[in-house]
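The data layer described in this paper is built around a simple, fixed record for each protein. Because each token names a local backbone shape, the row as a whole describes the fold. We quote a single record here, exactly as it is kept in our systems:

***
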Amino acid sequence: MIVENLLCSTKSYENLCEILKKEVRVIECDLRRFGFHGLYRKKKNDRGSIYIEESLTIEKKKEYLFEEYAHHLTSSGNILDQSTLESRVQETIARNKALDMSITIDNIQSYLKNGVADYKEIASHLGFTAEYVEKGILRLIQKQIDISEYRRMEIANYGN
């Protein structure tokens, strides 16, 4: 796995594609007819393919590239039918993994220390949309709350 190489999300979409091509095929094509912006597909005895909608902005392509790579790392089976709980859970896990890989606390702290505090400006530096950066920051907050909650429960249960 090449997750470590992706954690520097300031890399361009093209650089990320080059890094990922060592592990999975990345293909830009017309997905509009299928109603998707990105897809991950793996056949038996295949290394897998990420399909990205070719008409998206470069920022959106980068966001979907992270999400579809996260599916490569975390998903199994056909989860296109989002009416099942299992498929929705796998989708959520992949989206969270994508955010974890692409929007890191180090990125955000670095920009904040340099006086960049606006989502749009941070997004511009990272090569994402402001909405995606906002989701990433909310994910960082959620993870911190989860860790704090766990520690509180651990302390409360200590000695019982």
